[in-house]
């Protein structure tokens, strides 16, 4: 029986069928193609420039670990612009089901940290906000306000990244979002009729938002499945521990919906992300997007009067405690870092 050969090199047996392109690839060509996609994304959208100080947000999942591995490897190979500083950090939400606790492999992050000379640090919600996510949840729930734990974590985590960015003097924060995450985001924005969110969706770092550290997503054109295979064969641990809150998270359902749709339309994830990017481009016009203002309580960037963190803290009855702590961070009225 003829073993199907790799459609790229024609020299080695194929190990992977890429549904979106119809290619049959050997692992060698698959891994090279993934690395090429990431480096092309970085160059095409100018995600990383000379002298950038990049913070890699490590959630502990395979995506952020793969991102740390790849950026370290690229810098070592001289593929990144000159004088790029890399750092990595994790955020400990402070409850036993938090994303941080799913990361049982902090030893692997330490290993990468040493191998690629990327300093690594863990921050807790407690040290950043003066309160934990559980404090916020209890405060809200005791008043009969039902807010999902993932929402609280999400709002605080996004702010935490900004605070950490200012503390470390980062010019950009890199996250491990992959093609599947991005496709889900497009669908979620559509399903919740949230056009405004597309203004910040595109591939380019948002360098014109004052007080906001730009985010970059170098893996956003790589399918989750391919990252998993890449991770597995490069000794990057795959954490399969699911957060118990995940089942009521709307993304969880979308994952299966997308997988079903993909059977009829193998390019659906690329199409969704391209559609989101086109909308983002249309909306990059400053006249269309909601301008960023400063929160009247904490001075952090927000589209309304009060930022979502302060809104949560106020409802949870933790405003005084939070603001007292926030002042000690000396971040009030943060200036643009770009
Ligand atoms: Zn090949
Ligand atoms: Zn605020």
TrEMBL record:
Gene3D superfamilies the record matches: HUPs
Residues annotated to bind Zn(2+) 2: 295, 298, 307, 310
A Pfam family per the record: ATP_bind_3
Top-rank taxon, per record: Archaea
Residue stretches in coiled coil: none
InterPro entries per the UniProt record, alphabetical: CTU1-like_ATP-bd, Ncs6/Tuc1/Ctu1, Rossmann-like_a/b/a_fold, TilS/TtcA_N, tRNA_thiolation_TtcA_Ctu1
GO molecular function, one term: tRNA binding
GO cellular component terms attached to this protein's record: cytosolic tRNA wobble base thiouridylase complex
Binding residue positions for ATP: 57-59, 63, 91, 176, 181
Keywords: ATP-binding, Metal-binding, Nucleotide-binding, Transferase, Zinc
The UniProt record lists the keyword Transmembrane: no
Biological process according to GO: tRNA wobble position uridine thiolation
Signal peptide coordinates: none
Residues of the tRNA(Ile)-lysidine/2-thiocytidine synthase N-terminal domain: 54-239
Protein name, UniProt field: PP-loop domain protein
Species for this entry: Vulcanisaeta moutnovskia (strain 768-28)
Highest classification ranks of the organism: Archaea, Thermoproteota, Thermoprotei, Thermoproteales, Thermoproteaceae
